[in-house]
Amino acid sequence: MSLYLLSYYIHVSCICLSGSFFFIRGIWMLLESELLDLKWVKILPHVIDTLLLVSAISLTIQIQQFPFVENWLTVKVIALIMYILFGIVALRRGRTKVQRVVFFILAMLTFGFMVTVALGHNPLGIFA
Length: 128
Fold this sequence. Notes:
The protein is mostly helical.
């Protein structure tokens, strides 16, 4: 298997894991579950997201397409920052449940948008 395919499969797998686990943690937040307080639940997203970032960097180097050069990658990076900020408010910083729910929905929509940008290599994503 080539380094490209290995990086690609790791990247796609981590996207699926990261998005799925964020969704599960959002449901736990809505249910006010104590599962959110478990140590492994707090550590695992960082492990997954580190692998996701390393594989993303590997892919950008291999395909020679870089953020702030390629518009679709620039949009992905900006959307990623928004996703992280929305997620922080949704799972940790939201003062009310309504606020956490709104930011959880915004984070999930942003995640979905990032996927459409990546699949189409188009900065407009689903709006193209």
